[in-house]
Amino acid sequence: MDIRVLKSTVKVLVEEGKGILAADESTPTIKRRFEIIGLESTPETNRIYRQLLFTTPGIEEFISGVIMFDETLRQKTDGGIPFPKLLSDRGIISGVKVDKGKVKIPNFPSEEITEGLDGLRERLLEYKAMGASFTKWRAVFLIGQKTPSAVCIESNADLMARFAVFSQEVDLVPIIEPEVLMEGTHDITKSEEVTYRVLKTIFKRLMDYKVIFEGMLLKPNWVHHGLDCKNKASNEKIAEATLKVMKEVVPSQVPGLVFLSGGDSPEESTIHINDMNRIDKVSWQISFSFGRALQQKVLQVWMGDPSRIKEAQKVFYKRARRNSLARTGQYKEEMEAENGE
User: Fold this and answer.
1) Where on the tree of life does the source sit, at the highest rank (predicted)?
2) Which residues does residue 179 pair with via DSSP β-bridges, in sequence order?
3) Which of 46, 81, 87, 298 is the most exposed place for a label (fewest CB within 10 A)?
């Protein structure tokens, strides 16, 4: 393990004005995304779409890293250039999702645990040889009357810590993504309580395993009311509640928080990043690691049509730029109505 390598990678990933593109949708997830636009997901259509994103002119101004799925990391451009090299030549770091997805926890209905430790050491070395500099592991926590349980939280925390240790062992920066889901009727107070409990447990476990905080990133959810909650919180309240929990739980040594968008719209997600960067000065960089919030409108424009690639790339560029502005609190909602922006 070389702490200098880890710190160097993190520094690039959380560079001011830049964020991470999460293009690591699993096979079932991208299949669902493509079905919405009436397109069949195949390795080739997946490749063409990722190529559209990665070759967008100018995105290196706003995107510091890209998280890829195993399939994507192995793919190449039309001209035969491996995606990691394409991105590296533009100053963008490649990362890879290394967990193997979620499975049900026996005796705990509606709760899941993330798998993927089997063979992880070998896979990490392979990914590193292919050009990856960082990794990601996601776990999910559902808010209900009796969930998330201590078993669910503690089991996932242990797996995340082991993933982080294995990644740092081979100089790959781990991004830990514990997502408290928005699904449900809970209010923002309940979300605050659960997010605190989840993160408190995870950081305790990371400390137990001697994970180097300076060489990792956290990809958290917003503290947010449930999607079916009648008492919806304002954007300002979401930003304030989220920052409150992060200050209480996240060690100052962690260089950055790269937020996931969850179930919020692209515009709402940008607003949250902007609000948090305007409310208070904190020890970490407050950035983004968006998938759907960067890609949703791109897919709607592209629709699988080769003649619409350039138009879709312009949409992607605009969305990335607006999130870049949010990193320094300079985003304004009026920008959404400006076609030339």
Assistant:
1) Bacteria
2) 140
3) 81
**How far apart, in whole angstroms, are the C-alpha atoms of residue 176 and residue 330?**
27
- List the chain domain ranges: 3-337
Q: Which amino acid is at 245?
A: V
User: Whole-angstrom Cα distance, residue 41 to residue 112?
Assistant: 26
Model pTM score:
0.95
Separation of alpha carbons 27 and 44, rounded Å: 12
For the chain, the first-to-last Cα distance in angstroms comes to: 44
- Could you say which architecture CATH assigns to the domain 3-337? Alpha-Beta Barrel (3.20)
Instruction: Decide if pLDDT at 340 tops 90.
Output: no
What value does the mean pLDDT of the chain take?
95
Q: How far apart are CA 15 and CA 34, in angstroms?
A: 32
219 is catalytic: yes
- Catalytic residue, from 219, 281, 297, 318: name it: 219
pLDDT in tens, 171-182: 999 999 999 999
Confidence of residue 341 (pLDDT cuts 50, 70, 90): very low
CA–CA dist 15, 178 (Å, integer): 23
Tell me the C-alpha distance between 145 and 196, whole Å. Answer: 17
